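Let's practice the habit of predicting before peeking. Look at the sequence and jot down your guess about where helices and strands might fall. Then scroll down.
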Amino acid sequence: MRIIDLHQDVALNSLYSTGKDITKTYSLHQGSNNAGFAVNNNTDIPRLKKGNVKLIFSTIFSLDNKSIEMLAKESPENYNFNKVFKIKSGLAGALEQYSYYFDIFSKSKDLVHVKSKKNYLSLKSSKKIGFLIHLEGIDYFGNSLDFLDASFELGARSIALTWRNQNAFASGNSTTGGLTYLGKKIIKKIKAKKMIFDLAHANKKTFWDAMKIVDFPVIVSHSLCQAIVDNSRNIDDDQIKAVAKTGGLVGLAVIPDYIGGDKISDYIKHFVHISDLVGVNHVAFGTDFDGLIDKEDRFIKNFEDVSKYNNVLKGFKKAGFTNKDIEKFTHENVERVILQILPQ
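Done guessing? Here is the structure:
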């Protein structure tokens, strides 16, 4: 079965954690950096092929240091925010990551930059791997909606307004506050631009403020179930139901602390919970591979990188899911949202 993954941080990892050449095969801790990050290397083209991965949503992650400085002072117990200062910030950081993607797209015959339904449909019948550029937080937009137009022209097709922090548009899960006036305006523009809208990292007020105005499928690209592990990065049952009601879906991350264990069976409990709650049409992979670069970060045993999705598929069968259910988890649910939202 082909795999679509809603969240991987390939540019961030390659530039700051591993220095990898994505066209070559690496082991989990192979690579190097001078920033003090852990060398956690989950993704490269040979391993994507081995894992039968057809498409990943690959991020651009660039923050406003002022907001991170505030978080480091006010919420140090929630996250090691100081590590973020080692990553190039603002517009310069975003452009560095765009440049990384353009470089690998030009150099690798194995990759396709997915920007439209047509791109995706042609990808399905090829042996190539698609990258759909996702914006994980838009601090560098400042208070300008025009940056959305520029981002679209550069090829971004999926967007989350914020990371854990607060910006001019919304508030993340380590802050208070909700969706702002500009946030409401940009959501309408996201719909008009035919981009996928992601509520991962949104705090609950931002989430519910957004749900009052969306009338299209939304995703939560990399989260887990708060009913199983109660923390601010996971979402509760009412949120899951609201996402499902839009026709959207939740991508499930491979973060053991948020899963409640480090075994594949622990991870699958979250697929079971969502399927029992809203059916099998609203859940997918959203691993956060290549984004876990803290020295304390751990991985699920036997699912440490993109070559090993098949181990999870075997776990789905053991949990009683049918082949049709598994096809929905692996690609059909995300495909439905892509074909409903992206431009022709």
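How did you do? The CA atoms of residues 224 and 234 lie 5 Å apart.
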